[in-house]
Every structure is written in structure tokens, then in C-alpha cells.
Amino acid sequence: MGDQDLSTELEDQGYQLVGRHSAVKICYWTRQSLTQGRDCYKGRFYGIQSHRCLQMSPAIDSCNLHCRFCWRNQGWENDETMPEYDDPEGLLDRSIQAQQRILSGFKGDTNVALERWKESQSPRHIAISLTGEPTLYPKMNRFLELCHERGITTFLVTNGTNPDALRHLDPLPTQLYVSVTAPNAEIFRRLTLPAQPDAWNRLEESLEILRDLPTRRVVRHTLVKGWNLGWVDEYAALDLRARPDFIEPKGYVYMGKSRQRLGTDHVPSHADIGGFARALARRTGYHLLDESPESKVYLLGARRDGRYLHGLAAAPEALPAAV
User: Fold this and answer.
1) For the chain, what are the domain ranges?
2) Cα–chain-centroid distance for residue 67?
3) Second-level CATH architecture of 3-318
């Protein structure tokens, strides 16, 4: 697919393109937070204000995995770092401007409180995920630094196959997610269709690195029925290597382009995820802290008292240290 075709398709899907390789898109829960006062599970678990959360990717056409459960189009992406990249200063400014454009129409909505809309114009959280593999953006360190200088907390979501990027993150994001979407190398190969033959080994290396990073660390298991749901002992062994602060077992959602690769029979129920989460808690010694049925996600924590919950609304420097 050519650049123009990619741009047209992304814009048709509601993306605001930013510079040469980035995009912003309003999250369903940002809309819900503005119109209904309902925050996403990150609000429930971590204190995020969804109407002030900006969802973006600095690498819309760069990814080294081709996950069957991913909602984005595939077949057009580059597998490596983009050869040309935008400066992080302009990227952050333009991302915020794009979010403001997206949300401009909500100002006149009778369901949206004016004060809440005004707050949405100044994002306090940036979820660096959306599409692509964000650690392939070579200026990530400076981008994180700029966010934190402005008092914006950062959620960085990575597929874990770029361990050198994790090793050299400085500053660290406020919260670092590593997606562990398979219990072993064979299922990983069949489900994520990696570009590199050593991608699984890279993920294992990232889990070792994650263990010692002094920030809030989360391992997420996106679970697809009939593909990677089960194998609790193998997932537990991986989680215990990483020793994250939190583990999120989360159900696959039948949406976007994933509907061309998977069927509704691959969608687990919240009860399915709950059974897995409870078994994983028993196997790892983690504690079942919370759940969000709407998002089919459970939260397991290393500490029963939930000491680290509801702290991310604070500035990054005010956050407690990780376990």
C-alpha cells in the first residue's frame, strides 16, 4: 500500500496524521468521559482522567509484529526504525493540537460540561500506543522528557521485541507496559507473525530488563480464545521473570481489521478472563486487586494493599517508586 493510500485509510478510520510518521486518535473512553463522565479501566485502576488522555503513536507505519488480533491494517508497515523522523518538540506540539481539533466539536454538546471540555484541551496523560511499535521512534527519550517537563504523565506500550530501546530509555515513562501475548515461542510465532526470527528471544530479554526498571511496570496478556488463552504455568513463569508491579489479563476485542483474521468465537468472555486471572494469581503469588467487566480486564498486583493504585494523576516526579 502506498503512502497516499495509507494516509487515506487512516484518515477514514478517524486518525489525525501528525508529521511524517505519527498519528492521534480519540479513544472511545475519552468520548465517554466527556459525554457521560465514565472513565476507562485505566481510570479505575490507575487514576487516569480519560477526558484528559491523548492517545497517539509516533510510529504508525513501523512494526515488526503482525499480530492476528491487532485492529489495524497490515501489509504496509516497515519492520524497522523509520529512516527519517520528526523532532519530538514539534511532534508533541502537533499531537496536542490534533487532539484539540478532534475535541473541538464537543464544546457545543449539551452532554458535555464546559469546564470538563476546557480541561480536555490540556492533556495530562499521553498513551503512547495506538498502532505500530513506538520504541522504533529513535527520539523517544526526548519525547518523554518533554512530556514530563510539561507535567504530562506517559504510558508507553511496547511489544517487548526491542530490548535495546528499553535498556536505553532515559527518562523512563511514568508507566511501562510490555505485551506478553503468548506463553511460548511456538504460539508467539503463529499468533504474532514476527518479522525477525529471534523476536521471542528479544521479548524474553525485555522481561529481564523490565524487572529492574525503576518505574511503574505492567505486563499485559491480550488473550484470544482458541489461540493463547490457557497455559497458566507458562505465563506465570514469564511473569515471575519480569516481576512487574501489575499484571493485566485482558480479553481480545473483535474490532477493526482483526475481524478479517479472527472470528467472534475467538472473543473470550469476562468470566473466561476471570478464571485465567485467578489461576495466574494463585500460580504467581500476585493478588487480584480489581476488574473492569466492560473492558474484560483484571488487575493483579504484587502488593495486596494496592499502594500504587490511583497515583498517576500526579506529576511523574511525585509518583512512588516501583516495588
Assistant:
1) 3-318
2) 14
3) Alpha-Beta Barrel (3.20)
